[in-house]
Amino acid sequence: MPDSGGFSAEWDRYHSSHHAHTGRTGAGGLANIEFDANFGSHLPQPPATVLEIGFGEGHTLQRLSKRGYTDLHGWDIARECVERAAATGVPGKLKHVNALDELERVGESAFDVILAKDLLEHLPRSDVLRFLGGVHSALRPGGVFLARLPNMGSFFAVMLRYDDFTHRLGFTENSLKQVFTLAGFERDDVAVLNDVLPG
Question: Which long-range contacts (CB under 8 A, 24 or more apart) does 167-176 make?
Fold first, then answer.
């Protein structure tokens, strides 16, 4: 995400320039297994109002739709991603927006679940607390925020940190819990789990 207040060329062309989109799609069977292992068990049953911030090609929204979720919302700052997802019939109310601003517009208690896969590391440091505070406010009581991001305490941290031009930050387990707590989440409610890979 760019600094609050606008879009930039790196986001307008994110889909066509980023290796994860140019080299693979993430729609196959292994991706479904990975999603179930890392996210599925933490989701409430339908009906639940679900928002994915940074939905990319929309594979997660498609998976959720197949699992019976109908109140789906997707926000992405990359215009290409929104246009491609809309053109391929990705389910949900899709918006090309800066989530920092949109979270403030939706107000309190709008969603049961908010997903942000591989997103927090893209935020400028100055926007992290604003973003997480907005997520906290937009969740309904008992709601769930699920995020995936590189663990800078791992052996692969340096590669992950610099593998994408749009990465701005890195987090360890401790710093992640710290920022969540500063943003209003209860520290004991923040669970940091290892990514489960297929196979």
Answer: 167/121, 167/122, 168/121, 168/122, 168/123, 168/124, 168/125, 169/120, 169/121, 169/122, 169/123, 169/124, 169/125, 169/128, 170/121, 171/120, 171/121, 176/149
